[in-house]
Amino acid sequence: MNVVLITGASSGIGKEFAEIYAANKSNLLLVARSEDKLKEIASNLSSGYGIEVDIFVKDLSEENAVNELMQYINEKGYLVTDLINNAGFGDYGSIIETDWTKESNMIHVNIVTVVHLAKEIAKHMVSNNIKGKILNVGSIASYMPNPFMSVYHASKSFVLSFSLGIREDLRRKGITVTVLCPGVTASGFQERANITNASFIKGRSMPTSKEVAVYGYSQLQKGRAIALHGFRNRFLVFLMRFIPKTWVTAIAYNLSK
Ligand SMILES: NC(=O)c1ccc[n+]([C@@H]2O[C@H](COP(=O)([O-])OP(=O)(O)OC[C@H]3O[C@@H](n4cnc5c(N)ncnc54)[C@H](OP(=O)(O)O)[C@@H]3O)[C@@H](O)[C@H]2O)c1
User: Is the separation of the CB atoms in 28 and 56 below 8 Å?
Assistant: First the structure.
């Protein structure tokens, strides 16, 4: 059975991707840690859209997570046509105050798992002759350092560079790779990153996760390399080409402190 694999599908942008694919009659395999949320989403989508929805409950910061997921996919005989490599999180604070365990898990989920899963799914697509699609979720953070979210921003820079690299490689095998770069988006992200009260977030109007996922999905279908959401964000990234990175970082310090 063909399935679309979505990580971080229990909330926010990933959950909205699941709804979009369900509305397009794709069967789904949803991954996250929150079993109750995944079960509820799976039941709503399968009854609402008449599709098959399976869940794989896993902490993607675990060393063996991707191997276990791939073993499950092979046991079930699933053919993954699309991968939405979305699970990720951030953390806020000075590097001498933030928690290393949380940061090392972040590096694992945002980088190691993204790479390992893209690699295994690309191999799976090639060996099953699937002309598939991979969407990795980067961020506006991919384009600039942030002194109070240094690890998160660096992890998203990695995702942007990695995605562009494998895109050029995999397009020769019939696989499309797109990197979705949302700006600040309303989701569970802010709470987990401890930034709900930060001055650059409080009272700010943000696009919904649905708007971002709809945009990401449309750009993926068009085969775009980079899907940077929002005119303001695109303009900001354009302007940053002309400003030294050290200045950008100093401005980010003042905006985020
Ligand atoms: N919201 C923003 O402002 C924003 C901006 C740019 C980029 N992004 C990126 O967008 C992606 C989605 O985030 P979101 O905004 O939708 O935030 P969210 O609502 O917090 O969703 C994050 C998803 O990732 C999953 N996840 C987190 N840690 C995990 C782990 N260790 N193992 C398995 N799943 C895990 C969560 O599921 P469980 O908690 O159930 O495990 C959840 O489903 C992330 O990569 C984020 O960096 C967000």
Answer: no
Q: What backbone phi and psi angles, to 5 degrees, belong to 50?
A: 65, 40
- Closest C-alpha residue for ligand 1 atom 44: 88
CATH number of the domain bearing residue 187:
3.40.50.720
For residue 59 and ligand 1, the question of a CB distance below 6 A is answered with: yes
* Cα of 79 from ligand 1 centre, angstroms: 24
Report if pTM > 0.85. yes
Please say whether the beta carbons of 171 and 223 come within 8 A: no
- Residues 40-50: tens digit of each pLDDT: 999 999 999 99
- Residue 242 alpha carbon to ligand 1 centre in Å: 31
Q: Are β-strands 2-7 and 176-181 bridged in parallel, bridged antiparallel, or unpaired?
A: unpaired
- Tally the domains of the chain: 1
Domain that holds residue 13: 2-256
Catalytic residues: 152
Residues whose CB is less than 8 angstroms from the CB of residue 34 and which lie 6 or more positions away in sequence, other chains included: 10, 11, 57
